[in-house]
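Possible regression after last week's pipeline update?

I re-ran a chain I had predicted before the update to compare outputs. Posting the input and the new output here so someone can diff against the archived version. Not blocking, just want to make sure nothing changed silently.
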Amino acid sequence: GKPKGVMVEHSGVANLREYFRHTQGVDKKDRALQFASYAFDASLSEFAMTILSGGTLYVVPYEYRKDMKKLAEYIKENKITICVLPPVVLQQLPVEKLSSLRTIITAGSETTKSIVEKYSDIGVYSNDYGPSETTVCATYWKHLKGETVPERVPIGRPMCNKQIYILNGESLCGPSIKGELCIAGDGIARGYLGMPRLTAEKFADCPFTEGKMYRTGDVARWLSDGNIEYLGRIDNQIKLRGYRIELDEIEVVANSMLKIKSCVAKLMKNGANDEEIVLYYVIDKEVGNGEIESGEIRRYMKSKLPEYMIPSYFISIDEIPLNCNGK
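New output (post-update):
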C-alpha cells in the first residue's frame, strides 16, 4: 500500500531505551542482533536497546536474513545475548544454536503457545506489542523459564510510562469485555506527515489524562491477571509477518481484472502455526471464455502490489456467500 510518515518524538525513543534498560535488563555487556530492515520500525528497538545503552549491535549480513541455518550460526558464533525477531523467523531457528541467548523478544505478529514452549529453556521470552505510532513498543508479556504457557499468548501489560485504555466508543471496558485498544503516555507520535485529517482521527485528546491518545484499531480485552489479550482488528486490516496489510486493497486490485466478477481476501491458518492470505474469487463468465488460471491472477497482482500482499492461494468459487447484513 501507500506508506504513512509517522512523526516520532525523540522523547519516545528515550523512553524505549529506558524500557530495555530497566525492564529487559539490557546493559553494556549485551550483544544484540540487528535483524530488521532499517526501513522497519523494529530496527529502532535494536538501535535503542544497544547503541543507546552501551551494548554492542551485530548487523546481520543481508544474505543471512533468509537463510535460517546461517542466521543461527551467526547468533552462536557472535554469542548474541538478546534479539528481536518475528515469530515466523524464530520458529525456524534450531534451539541448540541459541544457547548464548538470555532473552528472546518476538514482535510484529502474533506468537503461539507452541513457539514459546519450543524456546522455553531460554531464560526470558518476551512477547512485545506496539504500533509505530507509539514508538514501536507499548506492552510486553514476559515468560520465565519453567513457567506455564497459556493457551493464547497475551500481549501483556503497559511498558514504562505508557497507559492502555480499552474502549467501547468513549467508555472504558471492564475485565473480559472486548473493545478498541488505545494508547497514551510517553512515545505517542506527533501524527502523520502531511495528513492532518487522519492525524485528527487517530490521535485524539485523551479523556483520562493529559496529552494525546492513539486509537490503534486493534481489538483487545483485559484478562483477570492484569494482562491484555489481543483479539484482532476492528477494520479489515491484518498483520502478517510484520507487515500491516489492508485486505480491502487486495480485493480492489483483484476486482480490477476483467475476468473476475467478485472476490474476497481472507487470512487463513495453514495448519503449521502460520497464516496465509487466500483469495476466493468468482469468474465473470461473460468475459473471454469464462476461465482464468491462478497464475494469471498472481502475475496481474504482482504488477500492482508488493510481494508480501500477494495471496498464497487462489480458489475459484461459484458465488460469495453473504450474511444477513449483506457482508
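Follow-up from reviewer: compared with the archived run. Helices lie at 10-23, 42-50, 68-77, 87-90, 113-118, 196-202, 247-255, 294-302. Marking as no regression found.
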